[in-house]
Amino acid sequence: MVLSMIPGTVKLIENFSLKIERGDFVALIGKSASGKSTLLKILQMLNDIPKNSISVNGVEWNDLSVKCWREVLGVVPQEIKLFNTSIAGNISIEETIDLPQI
After folding, report:
1. End-to-end CA distance of the chain
2. With CB atoms 3.0 to 4.6 Å apart as the test, which of 3, 52, 62, 89 could cross-link to 85 if both were Cys?
3. Structural domain that includes position 33
4. Residue 43 domain flag
């Protein structure tokens, strides 16, 4: 994987490999503007990336199901943003969930 903040600029990450086992917790730490937030946006599939630049268990990133990927990924951002709705609405976001499930 090659990660640049702006295409054609300085590479922030190149030939990066990471293996995370089920149940592991990972923290990204580093200097300001070192690419942490960009990497998190990529891992949440919020940013587009070039084809064949990331694979997960041999599957090309752009071929992964966004819904399935987000079901196995948990992110705790440093800035929490809430929607103008109930706590239950903020927790469930796009799913309809009964209050006992929350």
Report:
1. 37
2. 89
3. 2-77
4. yes
